[in-house]
Amino acid sequence: MPIYEYRCEGCQTKFELLRSFSRADEPAECPTCRAVGARRLISAFACFSKSDGGATTAVGGGGCSGCSAGSCASCGH
């Protein structure tokens, strides 16, 4: 089961939940204020790969969706 990030509409708390894919977009209960209505956030992720020579490289994730090169002046990435 994947872990999803949510933000409470009321108190702005960010939290994670382990949920099935079919329930990912259902409103969630905030662990801080107990309001129901937290919405899922779009999360960036990265994974790392180690080459035979021992060098570590970032693979995928990061960057913003608006930049094809993963770098632009508008978001500072």
Major pleated sheet: 4 strands, antiparallel
Question: If helices are DSSP runs of H or I spanning 4 or more residues, what is the number of helices?
Answer: 0
Mean pLDDT figure = 77
- Low-confidence regions: 61-77
Q: What topology, given as strand order, has the largest sheet?
A: 2-1-4-3
Question: What would you call the structural class?
Answer: mainly beta
Proportion in helices: under 10%
Number of strands: 6
N-to-C span = 30 Å
- Strand content range: 25-35%
Cα Rg? 17 Å
Can you give a write-up of this model?
By secondary structure, this protein is mainly β. It has a domain at 3-40. Helix content is 0%, strand content 32%. It is built from no helices and six strands. Strands 2-1-4-3 form a four-stranded antiparallel sheet, with no helix packed on it. The two termini are 30 Å apart.
Supply database-style keywords:
77 residues, mainly beta, four-stranded antiparallel β-sheet, two-stranded antiparallel ribbon, 32% strand, elongated
In short:
By secondary structure, the chain is mainly β. Helices cover 0% and strands 32% of the residues.
Secondary-structure blueprint:
Elements: E1 3-7, E2 14-18, E3 28-29, E4 36-40, E5 47-50, E6 56-59
Antiparallel strand pairs: 1-2, 1-4, 3-4, 5-6
